[in-house]
Fold each of these.
Amino acid sequence: MHRAISTFDAQYKLLKLVGKNIETKKGINKRALGYLDGFIKAAMREKQLDIASEPAFAVFRMIYERVFEKEAGENYLGYSTDSISDDETQNGVEIGAFDFSFWSQTGREPKGWYGCFRDEDEKAAKANME
């Protein structure tokens, strides 16, 4: 899990360098937060850990604080918990769980989180090219 945390921390730093952020013009990126939740929950399930336990919450908190810094991490974790039933968040959860499965089977760096930071303009441009 420490390797995954380091990976997400590095990925977020790269995303910020190219102007992407968890906070967008439309608000907090629920898909990106959902991705982290899905990835973490899938990892916990594989280790047969209770995702509703206090130790599990501590893992979520540690990851969020490492990637987004302490105060912001706590805010985003709360926001993620509050928006868990949202369709966009659930889409991110599915992507994160799939990426964990890929990572655990291949050992290759999970990269699905990058796609969660595409904005609508990029999606529209890509759709027009296809």
Amino acid sequence: MFHFRLQHVLEVRERLERLRQKDYSLALLEWQTLVGEIDRRQGTLVRASENIDSLKQTSPTTLPLQLHTNFRRRLKAEVARLRERVREQEQILEVKRRELVESRRARRTLEILKDKQQVRYEQRQKRLERATMDEVAANYHTFRG
């Protein structure tokens, strides 16, 4: 029966890889959420600009224009803050990606070792089986003849 001496280490590395995959997925989800927020706010800016054009023609006062200007300024500031958070999240995402790649590499290294040891074990078993079969055949011919 084949037994890999480092099986426990391989299992630990597999668990670490799953944890790092989860961390990477969460960071990616956060990044996607931030990008979605930016897109929504920019869409709101576009719709507000379209609405202000029709409001210019119907409203005799400047109050709606002032409110619109303040609204646009606030949304642009929010978009700028979100873009900064996106840049920070991209750095975090890159770190998580590197950690994931490194953990995959470490796990794969052990898997290759395991595969090589298993091949050597199977070759050893085949040699032993062949030797046993040769001995049985030799004994058969000795006692038969």
Amino acid sequence: MTKRQAIFLYVVVGWTVWVWAVLVRNMLLDHQHGVAFRAVHITLAVISIAFAAGTWRIVRRLRRGQPRD
């Protein structure tokens, strides 16, 4: 993986975490939507952030030249 590709993926991960973190904050403060609506979106946020963390880990391993599992 090239440095440019890694930087791109790191930016995508950062953007994903930022967007979902803001959404979660807004969902926790929101009283116009029901609990189910908020729970679904917060669950989606947790899943997306987990994917982002996995992507970060994979890129870091590839850039360091560590063997893959």
